[in-house]
Write a structure and sequence with these properties.
alpha+beta; His-Me finger endonuclease fold; two-stranded antiparallel sheet; two-stranded antiparallel ribbon; 6 helices; 6 strands
Length: about 190
C-alpha cells in the first residue's frame, strides 16, 4: 500500500502552500504537531521571502520580526536565510547539548534576572550566552549530562572561569593581587 498524500492548497486561509498531510502544508502541519494547533484563525506561516514594511524577516521560533542580518545563511531556502534567527538556533543547539528544553534554558537566565550570574551584565558580550557547568562532573569527551549546569554567564566571565580552571583559590589570589596593586596602578596613571 502506497503512501497517502493530499493535493491542493493548504486549508489555512491565505496560505499558498501545497497540502501534504491533514490538508495542511508542511509548515502548518509541523506547527500542529509542535503546538497542538495551527495558531489563531487566519495565522499564516510566513513565506521566507516575506518582509515587513521595515525590511525585517519573521523568525518562525520566537515569532518576532527581526533584521535580516539576524538570520544565518542557508542555501536551501528561497531567500538564502534560515527560518529561525541566530539566537533561536543557538538556543536550540544548546538545548540539545545540555539535554534541556529551550524553555528550561530561558528559565535559567530569567531566574538570574536576565543577567550574567557573576558580573550582572545584561548583554552576553559575544555571540550568545554561555552555559557554565561543573567540569568535574562530566569527563572530557563525554556528552554533558545537563545536571551539572551552574548558571548562565557572559562571554568574559565564562572565559575568566575557564582560564582559572574553575579553581576558587586562583580566583581569590587574583582578586587579592588586583586589590594590592590598585594603588600603584592609579599612581602610574597620574605620571
Amino acid at each position: 500500500m502506497g503512501r497517502r498524500t493530499c493535493s491542493g492548497p493548504c486549508s489555512i486561509e491565505g496560505c499558498t502552500g501545497t497540502a501534504r498531510a491533514r490538508a495542511l502544508c508542511n509548515r502548518h502541519y509541523s506547527r500542529l504537531k509542535r503546538n497542538g494547533d495551527t495558531g489563531p484563525p487566519g495565522l499564516l506561516i510566513y513565506d521566507p521571502q516575506t518582509r515587513d514594511a521595515r525590511g525585517r524577516k519573521h523568525c518562525a521560533k520566537c515569532d518576532q520580526w527581526l533584521p535580516v542580518e539576524s538570520f544565518g545563511q542557508c542555501n536551501q531556502t528561497s531567500d538564502g536565510r534560515r527560518h529561525a534567527c541566530k539566537a533561536c538556533m543557538n538556543l536550540y543547539r544548546q538545548s540539545r547539548k545540555w539535554q534541556k528544553s529551550p524553555q528550561q534554558l530561558k528559565q535559567m537566565l530569567s531566574d538570574q534576572g536576565g543577567a550574567c550570574a557573576i558580573c550582572g551584565a545584561t548583554e552576553h558580550g559575544g555571540r550568545n550566552w554561555q552555559y557554565d557547568h561543573d567540569h568535574s562532573c562530566c569527563p572530557p569527551g563525554n556528552k554533558p549530562c545537563g545536571e551539572c549546569l551552574r548558571g548562565v554567564l557572559c562571554l568574559r566571565c565564562n572565559v575568566l572561569l575557564g582560564m582559572a580552571q574553575d579553581d576558587p583559590d586562583r580566583l581569590t589570589a587574583a582578586a587579592a593581587y588586583l586589590a594590592a596593586n590598585k594603588k600603584s596602578q592609579s599612581a602610574i596613571a597620574t605620571l
